[in-house]
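Figure S7 source data.
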Amino acid sequence: MRPCTIRPVADHPYFFTWGAQKDARPISLVGGEGAHFELATGERWLDLGSLIYQANLGHGNRRVIDAVKAQADRLCLAIPAADYPEKRELAERLLAKAPDGFDRVFFTLGGSDANENAIKIARMATGKFKLLARYRSYHGATMGAVSLTGDARRMAVEPGLPGVVHVSDFDCGACPGGVRAPDCAHAPLTHIPATLSREGDGVAAVFVESIVGANGVLIPPPGYMAEVRDACDRHGALLVMDEVLVGFGRTGRFFALDHEGIVPDLITCGKAITGGYGTLGAVLVHERVSAHFDDRALVTGLTHYAHPLGVAAALETLRVIDDEGLVDRAAALEGTLRAGLERIVQAAGTWGGQTRCRGLLGGVELDLGAGRYEALKSALVARCVHAHLPLQRNILVIAPPLVIGEEELRDGLGTVADAVQEAFGVRP
Ligand SMILES: Cc1ncc(COP(=O)(O)O)c(C=O)c1O
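Tokens for the predicted pyridoxal-5'-phosphate complex:
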């Protein structure tokens, strides 16, 4: 087996994120093609994580790269008030993908500040300040977004934004009675409505990931989102659906909220909106909210609002998604992913748990305690396979580029199963 080429380096002139610098593991990324990326060492890695869930179009997409280059030649500098054709077309295309009634886009630089600005828009539009979000959630790293975040990442900077109330989710896997949706039609559905009524109609917005991503691929039980929508209406709160990780075809529908048949008030976007080829995010706004700002000030903005290079990357990404039928492709490959997840869970033996899957977003519960996390990480590195292994959640998340070949996916999942078998067979 090849030695691991990812080594700790503490001596860099820039910060690595989310950890102590001495533990950082720089990766010498130099490029890639399709579902593979390449390192300076010559290694070719199979990307079963779409980097950090943004590379939905895979690596080395010529169309998007050329579109960004052409945009740089055409118009590279802009200001928020600049009206140029690509910005208009992108906004129109995004709104066309949203449910009926969405009529305005607020552009941001990424997913965190999409949620940040959704908070501001919701507070201004409702005149209220409280915000509800769930414990099993991640909404971003900026101060407002991390305050909404329910997982442990918020704790390093608490106290967070005043007015954020966290609420339990539908973590059926953790139900003390062992009852799972659809058999259980009660407890998980009541948390948000009950909390909304206890907060005395003071809630500006409820933030939910349409499908919880990094915190465990949690697919809402039937009726859950509809009940959340009704409760928001009853209590005058806006419903914000965070599509940063699950949007843009990932789950076999353009937005993951399309599985639910409900209409939120705001939709936040980031990551794969540009396929990772540019820096952009967006808040899509329903007309019942945008109308508020027709004659009242929208008191928010960003210097790089709708930066032409990000806009060009996003516009071409949307065209590629449509032209190549990538949303249908994600739906069609769900069966292959599901079968691969089952193989992985079998390889884990008694340390395996539930598998969950929608489109090309899949999760396997694994007991990663007692050294199994490190063993599995090393086994994946040794096989040059990238997947997501968030330790705090005992979950392996698989989210390959939507362009991955069926055989490539099947073989890759087999390799992951082998890695699990090897890692869990070796007791620490
Ligand atoms: C659901 C969700 N929302 C928001 C964000 C923040 O996006 P970004 O890191 O691009 O700012 C993330 C990032 O992982 C996410 O998964």
